[in-house]
Amino acid sequence: MSYKLEYQKSIEKPEEFWEEKAKGISWHKFPMTILSKDDNQNDRWFCDGELNTSYLALDHHVINGRGDQLALIYDSPVTNSIRKITYRALLDEVACFAGVLKAEGIEKGDRVIVYMPMIPEAVVGMLACARLGAIHSVVFGGFAAKELASRIDDSEPKMILSASCGIEVEKIIPYKPLVDEARSFAKHKVKHSIVLQREQCLADLDEGEMDWKETINATTAEPADAVVLSSIDPLYILYTSGTTGKPKGVVRDNGGHAVALKYSMEAVYGVKPGDVFWAASDVGWVVGHSYIVYAPLLLGCTSILFEGKPVRTPDAGTFWRVIQDHKVEVFFTAPTGFRAIRKEDPDSRLLEKYDISSLRTLFVAGERTDPSTYEWLKKILKIPVIDHWWQTETGWPMASILKGLDDFETKAGSANFAVPGYDIKILSENHEILGHGEIGDVVVKLPLPPGCLPTVWGDHSRYLDAYVHQHPGFFLTGDGGFFDEDGYLFIMGRTDDVINVAGHRLSTGEMEEIVAAHDAIAECAVVGIEDKEKGQVPIGLLILKDGVNTPPEQLQSELVAMVRKEIGAFANFRKTIVTQRLPKTRSGKILRKIIRKIADHQAYDFPATIDDPEVLGEIEQVLNDAGIGLPTS
Ligand code: COA
Ligand code: AMP
């Protein structure tokens, strides 16, 4: 079916459309009810269906003759190792580890935190939880102890799965001290913990903490079978940054997720079972959940698990080497990685060393692909480069070129077309639907398609406040943008306090809370400003308390250290600027958007509600003095 017909059907007859797609997976019990409302009056998909996601990702393929095909290829330039795991071997490993978890008392509905680097055991841990119906919550390894602690308190896990260390470029990050600190901060006390010892840095295990490999070797537990689950039982919780300091636990269910992800592999990415698919991200982010672990395995692909960076592991040719060595057919990563590669290898000399003829399509997401990087990629790769748009909340793309349906041309700077299932509209502040070329809030008409979040863990009112109340009847994505006259969607950036730093989603509100807690600070604003390599980076504007005479450089290093300690180094909070005043509305609200526009040297409308317009000139001056906000040549 062509994209246009498929899209139309998905919007006009969603139940018929998704019932058909649901036939693509192997249910324990096929759902009789396709779309219904739950107790919160929320839309739910396939509520009376029964299945197990781990079964679909593993057992199903082994039973159907795919057992000897590679399921995972772990390629780790930081440890100089490669491990290839077939579907049969992965099933054995997952069933065995699930048996261990079960013997430790983990059962359906229990939460398990996974705080691990990009190693196969992270995938094993996730799939073992899914096998038992336990709800995993993977926390990105770059997060500091306080962030881990807040996720422990919110999800109240029975167990933490961890590793002794992660490996960054030329540095080892011991995880055990971070986990210990997080456990000491958290009010909720986690009873069980299993730690994978990596030879690069062994952890001293405390009493009651289990060594992953020793436990597996010594276990007498039976490998665990997949538990039959309801379609709407949660599969995982993934925390994501919002406007406040408290991250939101995005809940993903089993049935809608499996149906949507499998559909996306075929329709959006144009892949078939047996293809080699690589998403260079991290299992701690949604891209890792959806397109390193679940979607490729649900379809029966070979997925690459890459422990490294686009550059310096060992050089800017590492992506091309992986594509060549494993014959990657479809590749997906964040534009920021390519900007880093281009900076080091602008003439793509390193690409000439490798044969990447297996590669059919490149997908990019996580932030807008700037036209210059897009053109560079098209020039050097000579294959379709598709910018596509989605977010943790949806779990799969909302806009893209549908590679499996039609081969429409891409447009530089655009995330392309609405994906079937997503009725995307652009709304004004007053909820009017805007026309072509008009910028507004990018929203999705409810019901969201299968796979998207049904709620926020533990607090449905947070879901309603964050996503539904602003434009009743629509899901608020938090992005601003417009459709052009040809129906291409352009995402122009967040309309809230979320920023995207080197492909990592962060909250400036959270950084502001940390900065404001410093003794010297009377008031502050943290905003994300444009950065050539990382897309955006945060800066802090500070008003000091009367009588404070700490030198600005010292203050900056103290504040930078605080944000590194409380959120993590990957927040890239490196610059603070002292100012006398901040622009505010008459009711006292800081006009952060305008600060951002001044810093990015963009035009802005003079807000009618501004308290004192002269402050804008002062802000421009302090930013200019700091080398920010000047026109770029
Ligand atoms: N664990 C611990 N620390 C981490 C970390 C992790 N998983 N990830 C990043 N950090 C640290 C880095 O070591 C660095 O520390 P430093 O300030 O002490 O040197 C700091 O955070 C900043 O790291 P980063 O912003 O990643 O910069 P970089 O120069 O090391 O790398 C990129 C730049 C663009 C190559 C890298 O950020 C990247 O690959 N980004 C893509 C991320 C991605 O795939 N996101 C998913 C979207 S699909
Ligand atoms: P995350 O939840 O970490 O995946 O981040 C989602 C956010 O990243 C979106 O709300 C957008 O702001 C941004 N984003 C993701 N993909 C794109 C894209 N292709 N173009 C523009 N912004 C994007």
Explain what you see.
The chain has 633 residues and is of the alpha/beta class. It folds into three domains: 3-308 and 388-481, 3-Layer(aba) Sandwich (Rossmann fold); 313-382, Rossmann fold; 502-625, ANL, C-terminal domain (GMP Synthetase, Chain A, domain 3), CATH 3.30.300.30. The protein contains 18 helices and 31 strands. Helix 3 (53-63) packs across helix 5, helix 3 (53-63) runs parallel beside helix 10 and helix 12 crosses helix 13 (371-381). The longest helix is centred in the N-terminal third of the chain and has 17 residues, at 87-103. The radius of gyration is 24 Å and the shape is globular. Bound molecules: coenzyme A (COA) and adenosine monophosphate. Residues 141-142, 166, 168-169, 173, 280-281, 285, 287, 309-311, 333-334, 336-337, 340, 366, 502-504, 569-570, 572 line the site of coenzyme A. Coenzyme A (COA) binds at residues 141-142, 166, 168-169, 173, 280-281, 285, 287, 309-311, 333-334, 336-337, 340, 366, 502-504, 569-570, 572.
